Amino acid sequence: MQDLKDAANRKASLWATLKAVFWSFFGVRKKSGYDQDAAQLNPVHVIVAGIICAVVFVLILLLIVKSVVAQQ
């Protein structure tokens, strides 16, 4: 239980969280980078950033599809 509290109190920048989420979407990551992220990032922030990035990704895909279909 203490480990969970310690993980929730981690302070990492917004940029570090977004960078970790981007690399997870891309699917390529060095082990050293993963270990560093696991030690510094707040898991709650990563989950929220992942959900937001996934929604933005889907919206971008929908806009691209709509624009391509509208041109035909």
Explain the overall architecture.
- This protein has one domain (2-70).
- It contains four helices and no strands.
- It has helices at 2-8, 14-26, 31-40, 43-70.
- Helix 2 (14-26) packs across helix 4.
- The longest helix is centred in the last third of the chain and has 28 residues, at 43-70.
Poorly predicted segments: none
Structural class: mainly alpha
**Tally the helices: what do you get?**
4
Question: Domains counted in the coordinates: how many?
Answer: 1
Order of helices and strands: HHHH
- Through-space gap between termini: 57 Å
Brief account:
With 72 residues, the protein is mostly helical. Helix content is 81%, strand content 0%.
Protein traits:
mainly alpha; elongated; 4 helices; 72 residues
Spell out the blueprint of helices and strands.
Blueprint: H1 2-8, H2 14-26, H3 31-40, H4 43-70
